[in-house]
Amino acid sequence: MPSIPPDLAAFLVEAKRRTYAGLDDDATVATPLLSGSKQLEHRAPPYAYRDIYFGMGYFVGQETVSRDDRVVWSMSYSGGVREEIRDRDTFLAIYKFLRQALLGVQVEEPYRGPRLFDQAGMIYRNEIDGALDRFHGVETIARQDGTLLYELRYGGGMLR
Which residue, 23, 130, 137, 140, is most buried by CB atoms nearer than 10 A? Predict the structure, then answer.
């Protein structure tokens, strides 16, 4: 099992709050490595965080953390809003709510948002299994009445 640097979780929380959760696509790098992607980055030596994703309504992406220019941790994810949701205002409200939930990321589980976040008539849930070295999870957003609006699956861990 690869050893987990003691400061990695704190770096991940900082990086996530300073990229998509805190800034949305305003954190996007002007010239991404992959054409057609969104790329967000945060650096705090010896670490560098990079999140590259494709799509909007349904999206697929990968986060990596490098330490001294060597990738040591990664997480892949895919998901998005339900296909039948086409109203722009609803779409934007769901992603605004998602960013609020993601700002609640914690050092104990620095993958996505908290296990539960409830605000503005929506409920965010994050079911996580594993630890920083190897994990997977599912996050959902539903209306108060239980109607599912959004779902994302993710997984990753320490590279060896």
Answer: 137
Compute the distance between CA of residue 106 and CA of residue 82 in angstroms, rounded to an integer. Answer: 27
What pLDDT is attached to residue 30? 79
Beta strands in the chain (DSSP E): 38-44, 47-55, 58-67, 70-81, 116-119, 122-131, 134-143, 148-158
* pLDDT value of position 27: 60
d(CA 32, CA 113): 25
| DSSP assignments along 82-106, one per residue | -TT---HHHHHHHHHHHHHHHTT-B
- Amino acid, single-letter form, for residue 141: I
Give the C-alpha separation, 149 to 158, whole Å. Answer: 31
Q: What is the residue type of 129?
A: D
Give the strand pairing for 148-158 and 58-67: unpaired
Give the chain's mean pLDDT: 93
Beta-carbon count within 10 A of 151 CB: 16
Q: Is the pTM of this model over 0.85?
A: yes
Which residues neighbour 21 within 8 Å (Cβ) at sequence distance 6 or greater?
99, 102, 103, 105
pLDDT of 2 above 70: no
